[in-house]
Amino acid sequence: MDEINIPLYHLPNDGVDIVVKTIDHLNNCDCSTLHRHNYYELILFEQGSGEQLIDFKKHEITSNTIYLISPNQVHLMDQGKGSNGVIVRFSIDCLATLSIDPYVLNDIWQLELSRERFKEFYDLAINVDLHNDYSLPANRQISLHYLSILLLKVINSDVDDLKRLSSEDTEVFSRFSSFLEDNFRTNRAIKAYEEFLDIPYKKLNAIVKRKTGKTVLQVIHDRLLLEIKRMLAHGKLSQKEISYQLNFDSTATFHQFVKKQTSCTPNEIKQRLITI
Length: 276
What we know:
The protein contains twelve helices and ten strands. The chain is an alpha+beta fold.
């Protein structure tokens, strides 16, 4: 069977942790093939058509729309002719500098805006770029300031989620997401989440369901399945190695899980990913 190797792209190695480029800019990251990167991409389409794949899910590209690609997400972009806008790339360390919770940001993929609202975001992105140099002592801080405002406005504009969750629920869900990301490979017992968060399962399940529309177990399984797809697509590991790394009892148990979640075998999923 053919194999694919999904490349992982990095920001330049000269200490730069913010890069702003036009969408049609030719660079080392070939967005027309499956790829990943170890930084965030905020893609602002002023005019847009076509589609893109984010973690194997198709999203239509539309005008006045912002897309957020998080580190290690599998991405492919096929924008239509005449599409234009900007891409703001920034490192994970930027979020720590700006005191922004990555798990709040990681939950946002797409933001559709009116033309007037989009212009507010677009102008902020342009200002991030205008001050992203060291010609004046304060430029670095000004650029970070504009990036902070841009990201916070993106978070605030995710209105559906904000309406569904109280500030207490948001904090619980953020801690749940963090624990899930750190432990889904080795510990998927719901009791472990209860104990870590110090919250009864019924309450935790209600919060997660308000946020995602799914139960705690479904969210855990979704994250595990996504990792399986990423590992299958990467093509470097055998299914036995994948099942071992993800703490399945056996390859047979691994196959049963994938079949139950997708109605496909791991081989069938891999073949589909190869032909994307």
